Amino acid sequence: NYLLGVGRADCTGPVAEIPLMGYANPDQVGGGLLTRLYSRAFIVADLDDSRRVVFVSADIGMVSQRLRLEVLKKLKSKYGKLYRQDNVILSGTHTHSGPGGYFQYTLFWITSKGLIRPSLNAIVNGIVKSIDIAHQNMKRGRLFINRGTVENSQINRSPFSYLKNPASERSRYSSDTDKEMVMLKMVDGNGQELGLISWFAVHPVSMNNTNHLVNSDNVGYASYLFEQEKNKGMLAGEGSFVAAFASSNLGDVSPNTKGPFCVNTGESCNNPQSTCPVGGATTCMAMGPGNDMFDSTRIIGQNIYFKARELYEKAFQEVTGPLSSAHQWVNMSDVSVELNTTHTVKTCKPALGHSFAAGTTDGVGAFNFTQGSVEGDPFWDEIRDQLLGEPSNETKACHKPKPILFNTGEMTWPHPWHPDIVDIQIAAIGSLAIVAVPGEFTTMSGRRLREAVKREFDSHGTPRMDVVIAGLCNVYTHYITTYEEYQAQRYEAASTIYGPHTLSAYIQLYRGLARAIATNTLQDLPRGPEPPVFNITTVTLVPPLTVDRVPPNKTFGDVLQEVRQQYRAREVVEVTFVGANPRNSAENATEHNFLTVERYASTSDSWDVVQNDASWDTRFYWTKRLLGRSNVTIEWHIPYGTEPGIYRIRYFGHHKKKLSNNLTVFIPFEGASSAFEITAL
């Protein structure tokens, strides 16, 4: 028995003009909303409340060091020593369709156009609020664990790297991806269902890099389906049941199950270089199971949800035992690793290899960093020159056989380009050990790490631990491949920034944490060197918010293109309004809802909201026009089984206006479509 609390809060942030974080494609800028992003928090405490563990899974690309430090600072000022570095795990789901700009290390500024305060603030506030809600709702409860296999939802996107691992090791596994889902179910003392955390290794890249709508991708869709099922009669994002689908060792795992094809010829490009005869690597793209990316997202999300539901309903193995948490900061550019009694190796200063720029079959050509995009700005010109600086001989030798493209560990202008100080962390909840890793471990790297941690617990009198890897936690350090995979130097290996022995170093470090937990010697763990906090207010290429304007004889919220009078299920309702920049709303109204779908109730002569902008059936598009004008188009993809009746769509925005005294204000407005009828099929 434990005290349990769950909470969910919006962390979407600005949905327009902010680069989306994940594919590192500067052209992939937000232009609307498919579904809101949420932070989901879970608190477990001893009955005597002497110890607590917090696990947060947020619908973001990854947790950055800046984000974590700001969240912990806020928690400290609210709760004192209750929530700390060691007992709070922050994990990102790794959606590639969330706003970027929340990083302090310079490399990440290039594709996300700097440090963007509104984006960072939205995530910090959302995470803290989700923890607040969980904190306020603590009650006695029980935990149950289950595990099972998810089929038809992943492929290994670097199979030729995987094959470099020893045959004797590979023969112990039936697949080149981890198909196992681990599920933690939470119920209160009266059997009332509270929520669940599922860990499963898959990249949330069903939505590809042509997408401009903010969304939480396949795992977010699984959360949505589970929460909609449990929070009956509630709108998306509402209700007390919280279902988190968290990331794991997904480094080389893609949901694009049809595999890689040449987009121009349709032939397979599943070769060691992922290249096509015409167009090379840029035309080799992996395809999901659906007709388009929206369909693929639903199919993969649904597969994950169905498995989770089955495991949830059959979760009878109870988790009991003490709580404990261990955390250290480590300088990952300088770790000595004892491979055996005679042989010691070292990690390296961070650097990215040539294949990093090639991207993957899920998103090709990550870094088209051209002169054109930085023209005429001395700050960004200097950044480009920094990028192409020559690495030292020591760094070159350390990273072999990686050919270094970006020598980030030796670049410090205007701030360091990559982290040296990295968080390592394990939280134990009874027999469950959550290993929080600062990046993307490949399938085999994850297997080795889990095995090493489990062995460490076993040998110190704590057998039968369930060890689960939580991915993209606390600070982002790109990928972690095995030493053998590193030799192949595909994208994941080129992005293993601390060199060929990165995995061995992590295994050594996490074993140390597991040993401290198992032997109850946490007080002897050195804290390690604190990470720096750079004094950056805002450095950004995101355009400033300008005054919004309307076409002649129109006002904000006017309909430009009206709905039809009649629709059936599975058709798409579309309406276009005179709009304003959605950033006005994100920066001035927290939890702003851009749209509703409403059904007319004749008995009460009122309109009832049936969908909001968090629904996966609605799409909100913002198009910038000239002279400060913009349009908003709202689509509703009418789901099968929608009740016939009279409906309308409403739009809510804010426009920026200059007053006579030169002050600017944001003025709320709304618009509504005409009523339309949905008829039975």
What does this structure look like?
- Its cofactor is Zn(2+).
- The protein is an alpha+beta fold and 681 residues long.
- The protein has 3 domains: 2-331 and 418-522, no CATH class; 336-410, no CATH class; 558-679, Neutral/alkaline non-lysosomal ceramidase, C-terminal domain (Immunoglobulin-like), CATH 2.60.40.2300.
- Helices cover 22% and strands 31% of the residues.
- It is built from 14 helices and 40 strands.
- Strands 1, 4, 5, 6, 9, 11, 12, 13 and 17 form a 9-stranded mixed sheet that branches. It has a 7-stranded antiparallel sheet with strand order 7-2-3-36-37-33-31, with no helix packed on it. Strands 32, 34, 35, 38, 39 and 40 form a 6-stranded mixed sheet that branches.
- α6 crosses α7.
Sequence-ordered SSE layout with sheet pairings:
Blueprint: E1 2-10, E2 16-21, E3 29-33, E4 38-45, E5 52-58, H1 65-79, E6 88-92, E7 98-99, H2 107-112, E8 114-115, H3 117-136, E9 139-149, E10 155-156, H4 159-162, H5 167-170, E11 180-188, E12 193-199, H6 217-230, E13 242-246, E14 253-254, E15 259-262, E16 284-287, H7 293-313, E17 317-319, E18 323-331, E19 336-338, E20 344-346, E21 352-353, E22 359-360, E23 363-364, H8 378-387, H9 393-399, E24 404-406, E25 421-429, E26 432-436, E27 440-441, H10 443-459, E28 466-470, E29 479-480, H11 483-488, H12 491-494, H13 502-518, E30 539-540, E31 559-561, E32 566-568, E33 572-579, H14 583-586, E34 595-601, E35 606-612, E36 618-624, E37 630-637, E38 645-658, E39 664-672, E40 676-679
Output the keywords.
single chain; 681 residues; alpha+beta; Immunoglobulin-like; 9-stranded mixed β-sheet; 7-stranded antiparallel β-sheet; 14 helices; 40 strands; 22% helix; globular; NEUT/ALK_ceramidase_N; EC 3.5.1.23; sphingolipid metabolism
